[in-house]
Design a protein that fits this description.
By secondary structure, this protein is α/β, with parallel strands linked by helices. It contains 13 helices and 21 strands. It has a domain at 62-389: Metal-dependent hydrolases (TIM Barrel). The chain has helices at 82-91, 109-120, 139-151, 170-183, 194-206, 213-217, 221-238, 250-261, 272-276, 279-284, 311-321, 360-369, 375-389; strands at residues 2-12, 15-24, 27-32, 49-52, 57-60, 62-67, 72-73, 76-77, 94-101, 127-133, 155-159, 186-190, 242-244, 266-270, 326-327, 407-411, 416-417, 439-440, 443-449, 452-456, 459-460. Strands 1, 2, 3, 4, 5, 16, 19, 20 and 21 form a nine-stranded mixed beta sheet that branches. A hairpin with a 2-residue loop joins strand 2 (15-24) and strand 3. The two termini are 38 Å apart. The protein binds N-(aminocarbonyl)-beta-alanine (URP) and zinc ion (2 copies). The site of one zinc ion has 4 residues, from loops.
Length: 479
């Protein structure tokens, strides 16, 4: 199967220009000057499919490096399965995800890894890799870290919050970091001070402050900044590289920027919710159905921040200046009915998470339209950097010969209405959209995953099981 994508503007991180792209089987075979005949050979007559991308961008498929499909969490399970979540991702121009294998205290890391491989196998619409969550950092977990790196799982997430669920104490964190420093893997950190948060939550609930808004108030930026600083210091002590996930506070960004200025291998990820949504949106949210519990739709951790404190503006700026390197979704969807509503009367029982895997490419493209990012930076923070950060670049995250044919044809003159109603885009397995009413000045037209068209003009043409496991290497930002 040979495909020609002609007349488009190919966008890579290093620049963009008119070019034709030829995909042979699963792989990009050539990127040529427009209309090239290649030694007199008529390309168009010799391919099976021609996609006319005139007036459109041809970009490397999106890579969402932070998703939680069917994750057991908060007394329930994330509502997207590997099947539904990856199909929704494909609709939105994401062609690879990196999901998290979960290890709770007492569980064996390698058993959990085998279980997650089983969950995903034969289910995914697009390619998928894994990070490994470590909670209690047993001795067997440390040896498992070496084995997992050989399996293509080269990044390990630790938590400084969620006591009794995920939290690792500082000693456990240091042990895992020492191992990462020796085997070249990446430590990912959920950086929030869990003890402080637990106390504030207890006090709020005791005082009768139980609505979703208090979720944000009891997870203040100081708890994020402090934990980010502590994680950076522990990484410095051990020599481990550190990737701080879902950064929402500008003060946490400053900690990351300072560490980077010092020459430390510290990286930061933010998410669309921290670029667009605020604590005040959550406070003001109300509906006939849910009253002031409406705000539960946006309960996630780290939480939405106050728009009066300048976090959102700082986050866009940090993306431009590379103080923050990339954008993932932290896709962790729950339905309002039967899941989020577990927290009616007590916000601390609301399962934490927002679903966005389908909308990240569009929401960040709107940043281009709004003058927040350049076209190339859009591609960089959504595809190129995730590929490099997590050892996939060359195959993923670039349009060049030899790369996988993971390509999105994006129409800057198209339009996307996000939400669950008629004529809207929602394909995630959720009974609401956290992005209801967002209008995007652009549209994902055609999505190819390893050379096959999986989405065309909003129609899904792929099959479950098309997606293959990505055996990742070490981060390409580390020497
Ligand atoms: O609210 C969130 N972020 N839920 C998913 C778990 C995590 O901490 O990433
Ligand atoms: Zn987290
Ligand atoms: Zn997460």
């Amino acid at each position: 199967m040979k495909t020609l994508i002609k007349n488009g503007t190919v966008v890579n991180a290093t620049g963009s220009g008119a070019a034709d792209v030829i995909i042979d089987g699963e792989t990009i075979a050539a990127v040529l000057a427009p209309g090239s005949t290649l030694l007199g050979f008529d390309l168009e007559a010799n391919v099976d499919t021609v996609i006319d991308a005139a007036g459109k961008y041809v970009i490397p498929g999106g890579i969402d490096a932070h998703t939680h499909m069917q994750m057991p969490f908060g007394g329930t399970e994330a509502s997207d399965t590997f099947e539904t979540g990856t199909r929704a991702a494909a609709h939105g121009g994401t062609t690879s995800i990196v999901d998290f294998v979960v290890q709770y205290a007492g569980e064996n890391v390698l058993d959990q890894y085998a279980l997650w491989q089983q969950k995903a196998a034969g289910e995914c619409a697009i390619d998928y890799g894994f990070h490994q969550i470590l909670s209690d950092v047993q001795d067997s977990s440390l040896t498992a870290m070496d084995e997992l790196v050989a399996e293509g799982v080269s990044s390990f997430k630790l938590f400084m919050a969620y006591k009794g669920v995920f939290l690792s104490d500082d000693g456990q964190i240091v042990k895992a970091m020492q191992k990462a420093a020796s085997n070249g893997s990446m430590i990912m950190m959920h950086a929030e001070n869990g003890s402080v948060i637990d106390l504030l939550v207890q006090q709020a609930v005791a005082a009768g402050n139980t609505t979703p808004y208090y979720h944000g108030l009891t997870r203040p930026w100081q708890a994020e900044e402090e934990a980010t600083h502590r994680a950076i210091m522990l990484a410095h002590l051990t020599g481990a590289p550190l990737y701080v996930v879902h950064v929402s506070a500008k003060q946490a960004v400053e900690q990351i920027a300072t560490a980077r200025d010092r020459g430390q291998n510290v990286f930061g990820e933010t998410c669309p919710q921290y670029l667009y949504l605020s604590l005040e949106d959550q406070l003001g949210a109300t509906s006939e159905e849910w009253g002031d519990f409406e705000g539960a739709k946006w309960v996630c951790s780290t939480p939405l921040r106050s728009k009066h404190e300048g976090h959102q503006h700082h986050m866009w700026q940090s993306l431009r200046t590379n103080d923050i390197q990339m954008v993932s979704t932290d896709h962790c969807p729950f339905c309002m009915k039967g899941q989020k509503d577990m927290g009616l009367g007590n916000f601390s029982k609301i399962p934490n998470g927002i679903g966005s895997v389908e909308h990240r490419m569009d929401l960040l493209y709107q940043g281009v339209v709004d003058g927040q990012l350049s076209l190339e930076r859009w591609v960089e923070v959504t595809s190129v950097t995730p590929a490099r950060m997590f050892g996939m670049y060359g195959k993923k995250g670039v349009i060049q010969p030899g790369a996988d044919g993971d390509i999105v044809v994006y129409d800057p003159n198209g339009h996307t209405s996000i939400g669950i109603g008629e004529g809207k885009t929602h394909h995630m397995n959720m009974d609401y959209s956290a992005w209801e009413g967002y209008e995007i000045d652009g549209h994902v037209d055609t999505v190819l995953s390893r050379g096959s068209v999986v989405v065309d003009d909003n129609r899904y043409l792929g099959r479950k099981g098309d997606g293959k496991y990505i055996k990742r290497g070490l981060s390409q930002y580390l020497i």
